[in-house]
Amino acid sequence: MATVQRSQADVNRTAVLAHLGAHGPASRAELARTLDVSPALITQLSKDLLADGLIVELQEATSSGGRPARLLGLASRDVGAVGVKVAPDHVAFVEVGIDGVVKRSDVKPFDAVSPLATSHLIDLVKTFVAVGEPARLLGVGVGLPGTVAQQGLGIVDSTQLGWNQVPLGEQLRRALQLPVVVENNVNALSVAEQLFGQGREFDDILVVTVGNGVGAGLIADGSIVRGRAGGAGDLGHVPVREDGPLCQCGNRGCLEAIIGQSALVNDARSIRLIGADEGIDELRALADGGNEEAREIFAHAGHTFGRALAGAVNLLDPEVVVLLGEGVQAWSHWAPAFDQALRSALVPGKRGTPVVVETWQDDRWAQGAAALVLATPFDSDGVAGEQGRLVRERLVASIEATS
């Protein structure tokens, strides 16, 4: 339990820096209210951050009565991070400030199965980093679909990308001469939810993405659950149908093989609803236009998804489920069958679990990867390894340079 508590404090320290960066100086009482944590915890967090030289005490705030409150502010604003989201066919980039706010972004086409995929990715990242100010960056975070045993090492196994034991972290560090942390993309997105989204209001959250694949990130007691080797949350490979279609993982009947975008497109092509050169956009357009066959494909996916997610909710008992990903662009066609299937399969005590559907934005995934870097200086559990130490050194050096 102590490890989980330290991880939660780590995220809260990052959230304090993010709030001060985004909104300017604030009192301890204001931070406690805004971040929804106890005044005692804010007192301890601010004490630690002051001791580390990351924040400073400023002038006293005006008060309508009682003792004036001292304001806290950032010791340095001139730092940031780059986040990279890798998908099978594109790469999204963002640069964020210490407050997590996106300063610039870009998207480039990418072919993950090309023999030169990693070389091309490295060139794309180098180009994006070079356009900014590399000297002010704390590091680069990379989120991708797959398993990463240790963020700091960044060795990737990914069925979606077709990668096996790719030492991406080492390759990027050597090319960029910057600290690099690599993580499963849904775990990275869950970090962003903790810092900037729904996660600020809850301690136990199930973040679920649906699109090319199906993934989940579990926040328990405020801490990301990674599992033995970083592979926790592989919801897309829950077996759903014993005689189902072949999944890219090599098994049959996985949830992803039935409701992933490729599966829906294949279903539509099999009944000649769309052509061989058409994809999910055309299928969604047909459903939007009232085509019953297209709507039935989404409804069937929604029903299957609802029952599978009910199993996860029954097992994990989250306070809230957050749904997002490319698939939510067609959510109006998933929702009716999904809602009925989910609620009917939940045990009675969990039927009221709220499900929040967030608008899909590619740069939010990349922001999550950048958030990994922002949280790394407070990585008391050592998930980021040597990279955590290097990020912290750069943060302290930036403060010393401005003091």
Distance between the termini: 38 Å
CATH architecture of the largest domain, by name, is 2-Layer Sandwich
Instruction: Note the total helix count.
Output: 13
CATH-assigned fold name of the largest domain: Nucleotidyltransferase, domain 5
Total E-strand runs:
16
Percent helix, as a range, is: 40-55%
How many domains? 3
Question: Which H/E pattern describes the elements?
Answer: HEHHEEEEEHEEEEHEHEEEHHHHEHEHH
Q: Quick one: biggest sheet?
A: 5 strands, mixed
**Quick one: overall form?**
globular
Structural class: alpha/beta
Mean pLDDT: 87
Radius of gyration: 22 Å
Organism: Microbacterium candidum
Protein name: ROK family protein
Family: Belongs to the ROK (NagC/XylR) family.
Pfam families: ROK
Describe this protein's structure.
With 403 residues, the chain is an alpha/beta fold. It folds into three domains: 2-74, Arc Repressor Mutant, subunit A (Orthogonal Bundle); 80-190 and 362-402, ATPase, nucleotide binding domain (Nucleotidyltransferase, domain 5, 2-Layer Sandwich); 203-318 and 326-357, 2-Layer Sandwich (Nucleotidyltransferase, domain 5), CATH 3.30.420.40. The chain contains 13 helices and 16 strands. The strands form four sheets. A five-stranded mixed sheet has the order 6-5-4-7-11. Helix 1 packs across helix 6 (185-196) and helix 6 (185-196) crosses helix 12. The longest helix is centred in the last third of the chain and has 25 residues, at 292-316. The protein is globular and about 70 Å long. Mean pLDDT is 87; it is low at 1-7. Belongs to the ROK (NagC/XylR) family. InterPro entries: ATPase_NBD, ROK, ROK_cs, WH-like_DNA-bd_sf, WH_DNA-bd_sf. This is ROK family protein. It comes from Microbacterium candidum. It holds the Pfam family ROK.
